[in-house]
Amino acid sequence: MAEGGRKVVIGVDESSFAEEAFNFYAENFLKEDDVIILVHTPERYNFVDASPAVIHELLTEIKKKLKVLEEKYQEKLKAYNVKSAKFVSKEGEAGEAIVAIAEKEKANLIVTGTRGMGKLRRTFLGSVSDYVIHHAKCPVLVCRK
User: Fold this and answer.
1) pTM, full prediction
2) What is the percentage of the chain residues whose pLDDT exceeds 90?
3) DSSP state of 49
4) One-character DSSP codes across 76-94
5) CB contact at 8 A, 113 and 20
């Protein structure tokens, strides 16, 4: 890890919203000595009634998706000449994971995308960016599409 650089946590997944948030940060705010911490929470499945074969297949698919996502963002980090970065995968709710890792890493900033849901959908479905805004102990940059 680079000493003295800002620590920036960026929530990532397979969506275009996450990629656009990453790009917006990289193109507008990235400093040479920033330390980037990419946070991903894999999709959760209900394994209760699944057979061992199905569980194995799903876990293999999750690992494959995670590898592809990490490789994609490693390429983006390289393209933006980011010198210090890491990719963290954490189980659980995305907002909680982002906030927990930001606190653990003593982040100076959190960057997240937003799907732009209306108030009603956000109330019923929840919103990662809404959770992060209300629970983070550092500034949060929410990037709209």
Assistant:
1) 0.86
2) 68
3) T
4) HHHHTT--EEEEEE--S-H
5) yes
